[in-house]
Amino acid sequence: MRVDVWLWAVRLFKSRSASATLLRNGRVRVNGVVAKPSTAVKVGDRVTWRDTLRERDVEVRELLPKRVAAPLAVQAYADHSPPVPPREERLAVGVRDRGTGRPTKRERREIDRLRGLRRD
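The structure corresponding to this sequence follows.
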């Protein structure tokens, strides 16, 4: 089964085109390898990507040929993602004052370090 269809069928993405876009941009990995929308998934595979709030990591438990109701969709995968950080932590990181302009390369790297996206 295609990974873009599976992500949409288990309701991890709102639309199939949204999942395919993320896959085309190289943001989704299947078993640690960057995946394309047509990459096949099977039971036991791990699918990972960066969500707006956290790193997502799900394990395929069941292949669904079409979109199903939410209670059934939850049973089709095991979510191994870390919990969503508290609101206070999310708001405190990387906030810039309005009108300060575009960040310099150095400032952008510092912002990325604060957000945990860089380890330099």
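The first strand starts at residue 29 and ends at 30.
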